[in-house]
Each structure stands twice: as C-alpha cells, then as structure tokens.
Write a structure and sequence with these properties.
The structure holds 2 protein chains of 2 kinds. By secondary structure, chain A is of the alpha/beta class. Chain A is 38% helix and 16% strand. Chain A folds into 2 domains: 130 residues, Aspartate Aminotransferase, domain 1; 256 residues, 3-Layer(aba) Sandwich (Aspartate Aminotransferase, domain 2). Chain A is globular and about 70 Å long. The chains are: A alpha/beta, B alpha+beta. Bound molecules: pyridoxal-5'-phosphate. The site of pyridoxal-5'-phosphate has 15 residues of chain A, from α4.
Chain lengths: 400, 146
C-alpha cells in the first residue's frame, strides 16, 4: 500500500518542503490530478444539456462527482449539493438566496471566531436588508460559548452562522448542540466546514444543520471549486443568486422560471473539471482510514505542542492537546512578529502562515494582532515536527 | 547566511528596537494611518512642525520587524528636515526597493534595508511607514504636492 505522502506528488517529491500550511491550502492528490487529466484529455464537453456521447459522459462524470461529495458529507440526496467556486462563494450564495427571504429586523447570529468569509457576507446582507447581526462570543480557548446562545436567540432570529472548526485555533464547535437549540426555535444553522472537511467524513444529517459549506483546495482537491450543501426543503425555498444559462426552466422576455435545485444555483457553465477533481478527492477521503490518520495527526500535533512548550517566549492560543480540536495550532512569540518568524522558517523550508488568518475579530478577542499558525494534514510525518523545531530555534536565535 | 538571515542583521534589529520611542504626539499637525490590507500591518504617523520643518515624529506601529525599523528610521531622520525633504524619503525607499539604488543624503540610513531589495514580498513592509509619512505631510495645506 502507498503511504499517504506517496499519494501527493508535491509531498512525495519534497517540493512542498515541510508543508505546515494545510489550513490555507492542502496539497493536491495524484488521484485528483489523474481524474481531472482524464476528463480534459478524453472526456471534455460541456455538461447538463448535450445529447451526444461525449457530453452525456461529461455530465455523468460531473454528476458522479456531486454524488461522491454528497456521500462524503453524509447528505441524503446528491441534489442537495450545489457546486460553487469555493466556501466563500457558498456563504455568499446563502446570504443572497436565503437572505432574500429575510426582512428588516430579522436577526442572524454569527460566531466571534469566524473566518471573514462567514462574517462579511452577513454584514453586506445587514447593509442591504436591515438584518440585525449578533455575535456569539468564544471562550478563552476559542470555542463558541453555547451557554450564551439561548440569551441571543429571539423570536426574530432566522439563522446562526458558525464554523465547524476554527482556521486559527483548530477548536471544533459542538455543532450538534447548536443545531438542537436552533431547531427547537425554528432557526436555521449554517456551518462553515472549510477546515473540518480535510480531517474526516462529515455527517450533515447527524449534525442537524441546514447549510454546510466546504472548499476544494482545503480537502486535497483543486482550487476554484467548493460546495454548498443544504437540506432539500431549504434549497427548494431559496431564491437563485446569479442568473444565466443552465439554471432556468423557461425564459421569455416577460418572465423566467427557474430550474429545481441544485441547478437553480449553478448559473452558467460550472467549474466542471474542478468539480470532477473534488469528486475524486471525496472518493479518496471516503477510502481513508480515519482512525489511523487521526491518531497520527494527534501525535504530530502533540509533538508540535511539545516543541512550543519547551521554548520560552511562546504562547499557544486556543484549545489544549486533549480538547476537541483539529491539528491546527496558533501561537505567538514575545518580541517576534509572525511575519518575521514565517520568513525565517520559510527560508529553512518550513511553510507556516503568519497574520490574522482572515479572522480579525478573533484576533481582537485574544488581544493579538496576528499569530503564527502550523496546520497538519494526513501526509505530515514526524520529520516535519523535527524540521519545525529546528527552524523555530533558528528563527528565535536570529530574532533574539 | 541566507538573504533572509541578512535581512535580520543587527542594524535592522537595533532600529526596530527603537520604535518604542515613537509614541503619540501632543501637538501633531498631521496624522495618517496606513495599513497593508493583505497582511494587516498598520502604521500611524504623526508629525509636529516647526515653521516649515519637521520638529517631531510620533505614532504607533503594529507590524513586523521591517515595518518597525522603517518607522523608527523615520522618527530619527525626519526631524530637522523641511517638509519636502521629509517627503522625499519615500522616493529613496522606493528606489532602494525597486532596483537597489542606495539612498543618499539625509535618508542614507535607509541603506540598512538593502537586503530587503531582493525580497520583493517584503518591500511593502519597508514602504508602509513612508507612505504614512508622505500622506501625513501631503495632507497639510501648502505642503509640496505629491
Ligand atoms: C474556516 C474557513 N472558512 C472559509 C474559508 C474560505 O475558503 P475559500 O477561500 O476557499 O472560499 C476559509 C479559507 O481560509 C476558512 O479557513
């Protein structure tokens, strides 16, 4: 059997170096590249309407990808899966489509720890439609404070938008608990699964949410594609966001009627190749031995935390090693700015990310301007932890 | 040493360590906040004038070592210069970053940033405080046009 790193060309070749920036973008899997190449070289045609063999085959490949993603997300029906250009586009689609049904004074609760992709679209909706935004605070470890939720939900609450896992701290939200509370009050829940999806199959049905968004490039697939999953009845009731071809039933100059979901939300030619790649990524992830991967990721995370614990000046932000979390680790170093650390460690072949991670409200919550972040994926190895440790020592020496 | 290590040499680190000396000014004639939207670094520059010349520079820096060092250099170099000469700092800084042209005259201290010339992704760090200074002084009526 191939090791995990063998399945990722840039990892196997060593060209990705010590790649610890997986929360930004994971490396692409060989199986994904192969399926995209096969489509482009032997199966390329537009999808959905063509009735010659190549087009029929292309449509089948595209719809097959939809079904694979549906399986990975635990969706009851693949028609609940809408292809978008990414997680950001998926949230914006909901903000427009679901948002169109909201009235001034309706309320949306947004987590304090969200990525800007799950904040800004709601602010834009607030500015368009007079919707009121409320913030669900996070605790000192970065977890949404579910105890504060009951006090925030009112008769006017229509939606709770919360991340499944923080791209900064790795904290995993107890989404099922939020959904239970929301359902009892008739409130919809949107979950940002951008980070979660790279760490094991999701079960949207068990979570009980209404919307779930993921993005291809963070789950070993290509860039330029993502998914909005939404419960069938929610999608049925939702207005389209973009208009154009492939999303209509009938167009006259007087009136247009729309296609049923998911096509209603996929105006124009979709990112066919990328969707097929994402389907291949979902297949790969479905075939992955997650208990084995998780225990390895867990050990490596422990290794990174030990490295940080052993250094003076270092503060880890977020949950502890034994908390419900992903292997995404943020830290600060007294007297060393994250960009300088990342520059120095990057020059030693260690890819990290420093900055606000598109989560400025969370930075404010923790009273920091920026953090340095190391994030693991299934192909990382103990050698990566050693390289991280050496590069960190070097950077701390230079910056002392 | 790599080019990156050169960047963090003693001169830059010593400059950066002096950023703390900037602080807010009580009688600033102008104030400008500049930020790098990509990385979130933010610099506020305040200038107190004495006639046509810069008397004091103050402000606040939230950013990496290069942003800090460049802001500190401004704080130490601009006082005593007339507005035009102070605003000229950005021209020297841009030339040094763009093609390694050494800075001369009052802004010679900028040459400490020569290693950053080869690191294009860090040019904006060095330039950010200079952009704030230029906008700050340029915003005062009667100042040299930019
Ligand atoms: C938690 C989270 N949500 C949303 C996004 C946005 O994903 P994309 O840029 O692929 O749309 C990201 C990406 O950084 C993320 O980490």
């Amino acid at each position: 059997m191939l090791s995990h790193s063998d399945q990722f060309p840039a990892v196997a070749s060593g060209l990705a170096g010590t790649y610890l920036d997986n929360a930004a973008t994971t490396q692409i899997a060989a199986s994904v590249l192969a399926r995209m190449a096969a489509f482009e070289t032997a199966g390329r045609a537009n999808v959905k309407r063509g009735i010659y063999p190549l087009a029929i085959q292309a449509t089948q490949a595209f719809e097959g990808a939809r079904a694979a993603v549906a399986r990975y997300l635990g969706a009851g029906d693949s028609n609940e899966v809408v292809f978008t250009s990414g997680a950001t586009a998926a949230v914006n689609l909901v903000a427009h489509g679901f948002g169109a049904g909201l009235a001034a004074g309706d309320e949306i609760i947004v987590g304090e720890g969200e990525h800007h992709a799950n904040i800004v679209p709601w602010q834009m909706l607030r500015d368009r439609a007079g919707v009121v935004l409320k913030v669900l605070p996070v605790d000192d470890r970065g977890y949404p404070r579910i105890d504060a939720l009951a006090g925030l939900i009112t008769e006017r609450t229509r939606l709770i938008a919360v991340t499944h896992a923080s791209n900064v701290t790795g904290a995993v939200t107890d989404v099922a608990a939020i959904c239970d509370m929301a359902r009892a009050k008739g409130v919809r829940v949107l979950v940002d699964g951008a980070q979660m999806a790279a760490h094991g199959a999701v079960d949207v049905t068990a979570l009980g949410c209404d919307f779930y968004v993921v993005t291809g490039h963070k789950m070993f697939g290509p860039t330029g594609v993502g998914v909005l999953w939404a419960r069938a009845e929610v999608l049925d009731a939702m207005a389209p966001f973009m208009g154009g071809g492939e999303m209509i039933r009938r167009v006259t100059f007087e009136e247009t009627t729309y296609a049923p979901p998911p096509h209603r939300f996929e105006a124009g030619t979709p990112p066919v190749t990328q969707a097929i790649g994402l389907g291949a990524a979902a297949d790969m992830l479905l075939a992955t031995d997650w208990p084995e991967v998780r225990s390895r990721e867990w050990n490596l995370l422990g290794g990174l935390m030990d490295v940080l614990d052993a250094r003076d000046r270092v503060t880890v932000i977020g949950p502890g090693a034994d908390d419900r979390r992903l292997p995404i680790l943020s830290f600060t170093v007294a007297g060393a700015h994250p960009h300088d650390l990342c520059e120095l460690m990057g020059a030693r072949g260690v890819a990290l990310r420093g900055g606000h991670h598109c989560a400025q409200p969370l930075m404010d919550r923790f009273g920091v301007e920026a953090t340095t972040r190391a994030s693991l994926a299934l192909y990382n190895t103990p050698a990566d932890v050693d390289a991280f440790s050496d590069a960190l020592d070097h950077a701390l020496t230079v910056l002392s | 040493m790599s080019g990156t290590d050169d960047l963090y040499d003693a001169r830059i680190k010593q400059l950066a360590a002096r950023t703390a000396g900037l602080g807010p000014l009580e009688h600033a004639h102008c104030r400008h906040e500049a930020d790098n939207f990509l990385c979130g670094d933010r610099v506020t520059v305040e200038v107190e004038l004495d006639g046509g010349a810069v008397k004091r520079v103050g402000g606040r820096v939230r950013g990496c070592l290069l942003v800090q060092a460049a802001a500190a250099l401004i704080g130490e170099t601009a006082p005593g210069l007339d507005r035009a000469a102070a605003m000229d700092g950005i021209r020297h800084a841009r030339a040094l970053m763009a093609d390694g042209t050494p800075a001369t005259g009052a802004w010679e201290g900028l040459n400490a940033f020569t290693p950053a010339h080869g690191l294009k992704h860090r040019h904006d760090c060095v330039l950010l405080p200079f952009e704030a200074l230029e906008a700050c002084l340029g915003g005062i009526s009667g100042a040299q046009p930019r």
